[in-house]
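Submission sheet (multi-component)
Chains listed below:
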Amino acid sequence: MKKIKYLLLVLPLLFFISACEDYITDVNPLIDVVQDNLLTSESQTEFVVRGVQQRFSVVASQIACQMDLLSDQMGYTSDIASASFPTFEEIDKGAIVLNNATTTTTYRQLGELRFFADDLVKRAGQITFTNTALQTLALYNGNLYAGIARFYLATAFGLNQNQPGGTIDAGPFIPAATMLDQAIEKYNAALNATTDAYSRRVVNSLIAKAYFAKGQYAQAATFAANGMASGDANFNALNNDVSNIYYWGFAGAGRVQIHVADRFNGYITADSKETARIKISSVKGTSGRTYYWQTKYPDKGSAFVMMTWRENNLMRAELILRGNATGDALALVNAVRAASSLNNLTTVDLNALMVERDKEMFCQGTRLIDQNRGAIPWHLAATTWRYMPIPQTERDANPNLKGL
Amino acid sequence: MKRLILPLLLILILPTLIMGQTFRVMGKVTDARGEQLIGANVFIKALNAGAATDVEGKYLFEVPRNQATGQTVALTVSFVGYKSKSVNITLTGNSISQDFVLEEDIFQSETVVVTGIASKTSKAVAEVAVARVAAADLQQVNAYGGLSQMIGGKVAGVQLTTASGNVGSGWRFWVRGGGGLNGDGQPTIYVDGVRMDNSEVVGYAAGGQGTSLLTNLNANDIDKIEFLKGPAAASMYGVNGSNGVVLITTKAGKLSAGLSQAMSIDYRFNYGYNEKIYTYSKDQFLSADDANRQFRVGPIREHFLSAAGGNPTLRYYTSFESRDETGIMPMSSQTRNSVRLNLTAFPTEGLSIKVSSNYVNNKINRPSNDNIIYGFIGNTIFRAVSFGWVKEPDLLTIQDGATINQFIGSASVTYRPIKDLEIYGGIGVDNSDYYQQRYFPPGRNFGGLIQRGQKSVFDRKNKQFTYDFNASYSYNLFDMIDVRSTVGSQIFDRTWRTTFYQGEQFNSDLITNMGAAGTITGYGEGFLNEKQAGIYTEHSLSYLNQYFLTLGLRKDYASAIGEDAPSITYPKASFAVRLDKYDFLPEFVNLLKLRVAYGESGFLPGSQDAIPLLWRAETGGYGAGAVLSAIGNAAIQPERIKEVELGFDTELFNNVSLEFTYYIQNASNSIVGMVNAPSTGKTITNQPYNVGKLENSGFETLLQYSPFNSIDYSLNLSLIWNYQKNKVTDMGIAPPQYFGFNSVQTIQNGLPKAQYYVQKVTGPRYTSAGLYDHTNGPLKTASTERYDFGSPIPDNTGSFSVNFKFLKNFTLYAFAEWALNFKIYNYTQAFAARFGNVPEYNKYIWILGLAELAPGVAPTSLPKLTPNTAEYKKAAEEFALLDWRNFAGWIEDGDYLILREVSLSYDFTDLLRELDFTTYLKGLYAGISVRNVARTTKYSGADVEFNSTGGRGNARAMDFGTLQNPRTVNFWVRLGI
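Outcome: structure written.
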């Protein structure tokens, strides 16, 4: 009897020991996620490219809108009833705490864009392509967006109030000039990856823009000359009803928290034709004051404009006015104006050009760069943030930033 | 259903049909005071015969004469709250009359309680701290809306906080020192052997609040709730036991009284209401009147009908509940219908079968609140001008309703093929469907984010199976040590699926299905299948019924995607000695038992934690593309929590009981979700790392005193006092983690979990004109120089209850809870201050010459101060501390004392007897119960227990536009038929 009882106790135990491991690993496969290594394949390339572009579309308008808010182009006031984000007020005033939730999120998503893009290039290097078009798609887009991510790291963020730049992969702080060099390097790799003429013109414009941000106008000249030309479609970040443009949700028809400077209404008052490119509406504040808000991006699915042939024209005009290129600056500016059915200017100088840039690149995130490259005076106190701070989350988790 | 009824009826009447010639066993059961005991079970186990006592305390059952062969058998009587008693009777075929006088088990030391996965014993011999809520007893004197109300404050070492005052709101346990660092710190909850889905479901968010699926449980069905509080007791639950285990048992059938074996029917009607307990003051908020106006008195109506009965072969319990409850805010309500059938069958000797089944349909509407612009509280409290974001009439049209259908069922078999061998097998299922629809009708103004209406649908289907098997063999070693050896296994299989979609641009409010949406603005699907399996062996030794020792071992496996299944082994050992069995103790010591227990447990990593990177699809303007979904760690290991528990249980003078337990827990290899640097791009989730070490310790005490106990007057007093502390001792390579609004809470070395840890303000900052620099805020210490501002979790908690029976039939019950030494972040008021809604803040704004910051609300009658004067600087110093950017300035003491429950009830049964009405009505009881009667607290905000971020997650005690818990008044009547 004793033997039986021990057998009774031990048998089930033995059975379960052998069965447990098999049982618990027999689970239904996940349907909503995929492991990393499975994406390193030619058949998945387009899927990965679209992911990089999707992150670009999330990041681009978000950064641009916040850069506009920090610049003198947009503002925030709780006088507008639908405004409720204290973090926007900090950005507007350049008094941004390191754990500002808005800028923290933006830096995080920009980090994703940088990683996704670099990761795409890396994957492309590991795949043996049979379809060269897919290889080109991967290398062009990977390098293009890797360059754009670095461009924004250099122009939108900073370690201190007056020290622009960012970090990559928890590495040491990279000053803006070095970061822009990296951006240009990536853009050049994108140029090398494609033979498509339009794509090459877009990249050339972006390289010129990066040199502008560096204040290296001489180096910008060649690229601007080879950049986007009249008739070229805008280089946009695409959105839709599911993934929305930031301006719509925070500075537009979705919810007006961020308004535009009064001068944009002034531009229209001075010349009603400006409504072709300065699209605004108005709202009364609680105090009765009138505020203006952008309708350039009227829908949640509106595409964000990142680069245009018109901006390229204005860069070329500026280079001419600065003596870094030759040509007819006025003609270039007037071509831009004509695109919006505006009357020609009779003269143009750097000041007039900056006004054109202000109007033409309304809500495109370029104003802050213009202010920070010294083309427009800084509108806040000298001690304020001229960039969005590298957030506390990065400072906490990146050992290279300890004590900085 | 019809198919079931016929066999059941047959089983019920079969014994009567086949009896033929019988003899009677009868008598009366009273307590020591001579009071008749109604419903006591009297039975002869050997013959499977018995009955319950009737309203006179009398029992009567018949036994077939052919079963009487002159043998001697035990006639046993058992009754809840009394010590069981057996007498030997000889069966000769003649009727037998046997009366019983039962001794009250005042402190329930003889009551059998769960002490482990396959062990049950009484408190008198348990080697671990036992904890039991006698739910059925509480229902006699009070009315409970749900499980959470029944548990809070009633168990030593267990805190329970509700996330908000929404009806059906989520809630959170804090057991002892809060467990390890992994997971959500919540105990595993079983109902009749079914592992429950204890999720807080959020769906399309209504602020931070989700709905607890446990809100579906009908409190009236619960018989008892037992706790295994830490690894020392729960280690045989393995990875499910690290935060403790809660075992809920619903009511079972009982023997019918008398020969007719009529069923016992219980009907309860409950009418009551919810009302606000806290009123916003105009000293705090300019818009207080608007906020207060949103509250309403919400009626409660509940019908509960149960029937129980049975014979020694089959017992049944069935119930139906219909509950309508309205919350204190518009759009807050619950309609719950619940039906239950529990069966216990004893078809042959040595075999018992239990079936438990419960179906619930629950419709919950919840109001938007918390961190959302569609909330009633936010729209009236955050700004001086109410309804600035969404107008009141528009807010009232928002519909957010969830329909939950849930089936919980279990079946178990206990079989004794031979005398000392017991085999148990059980299967349980918890199958729920949570279907939420949120609707913003077209034609209303919800701001531009929602254009021409919006509808969101979220559907969550969760199905989880629990399988239990164990075999226990009892034997004797060396003829003096009784041993019970158990081997068993436990398997858990869960499948979870969500679907969600959102549409906008409805051109008509007459058609509200998703097909009428002009555009789809969001959609997705989630799926998870996970399994766990554990095997265990446990050996309990008892020597002279005085020394008790248990040793055990459990090995756990869990499913992992993409990696080998992780497994871990946890041991346990416990020992107890009954000192009162020695002669040296004085007579008045009725019980003195020392106990010590050691056990290990811990969380396993999540099923996807070991995969370095997971990608998902995200759609947008470019179509669907791959974006990161989760960051894992291939080297992840299971956590291990070790717990030592020391304590004693004593009973003195037959009227004092004291239980004391000290525990210390050490968690190692805890999995910390490390926040990667944003520049890595790998931040979509925290990355799991085995780096955490944590120490918890504390004590829990339960003191009970029963000074007098007569037929007409009895008094029972109970005091619970808990102390807990915890500290993170090692974060390894993980940097400090910050969370909560403005990242005011942290997990890092040297501090308790979720401690407030923020910068200090060192003084005001001035502009060049000498004005307070409100743009840049006050001067603060460096972001790396933070200070400890206390814990959101109280270190001292406790409760006190009084149960006073007077004039024989009146019962007054009162229950109070307190918590000390904890802090709440009053972000509601800080936020409102910033937007000009706090008078004190506006005063400083004005006198410091910053009037433009508070247009229209500054107290302009006050004199402005002159910059650079001593007076100005003094005011600036004060305002620097009040400045909303001084986060520490808004962290307030939360200490509280709440008179949680008061009830007065009357038992009309004596009156029924006098009127000779008991033929028609066996019992009649009525009472009034009030919950959250009164509160005194140091905290200035609306509630001391809620949390804006819900009942899960790291952040706690966040007050940000959260709805207060209500005061609830219930009038109830209970009829026994």
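Remark: The CA atoms of residues 1 and 34 of chain A lie 55 Å apart.
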